[in-house]
Specification:
mainly alpha, Multidrug-efflux Transporter Regulator, Chain: A, Domain 2, 2 domains, two-stranded antiparallel ribbon, 2 strands, about 75% helix
């Protein structure tokens, strides 16, 4: 299939697919050049792109993508190594979740203060004092 067909099928842009090729995430198994120099993508490319999208959905960086795909291609990692990697990824995401929860808490306080400022400025000021007294900055 041609690149536009693949892009449409996968919900990606042509630019993204070319980037994956340039980075080595798609190789000769996934794309071949025809005599007219057009790219022709195999069904393996569809499966590869599904895997890439799945790995991206769990927050894999480009370096992690390359490593995971290389491992998928070579089966060099043991099951225990893969389990360790999954556990590490989970810890990373849990840590980010705590950071995001903290950011949301701060934004909620800011929103509450700004909303209260319109309704009852004195109460807003008291809220602000309580908030600053409770912070450890």
């Amino acid at each position: 299939m041609r690149i536009q067909e693949l892009a449409d099928k996968m919900g990606l842009t042509i630019h993204t697919i070319r980037f994956y090729e340039k980075e080595g995430l798609l190789d000769d198994r996934h794309v071949r050049r025809e005599n007219n120099n057009y790219r022709n993508y195999s069904e393996e490319a569809v499966e590869r792109l599904r895997l890439i999208k799945k790995l991206q959905s769990i927050g894999c960086s480009l370096a992690e993508l390359k490593e995971a795909l290389r491992d998928c291609d070579t089966n060099m990692s043991t099951n225990l190594q893969i389990i360790d990697w999954i556990r590490g990824k989970k810890k990373e995401i849990e840590s980010k979740k705590k950071e995001y929860d903290s950011m949301l808490d701060t934004l909620n306080k800011m929103l509450e203060y700004r909303t209260q400022l319109m309704d009852d400025p004195q109460k807003a000021q008291e809220m602000l004092k309580t908030w600053h007294a409770g912070s450890s900055d």
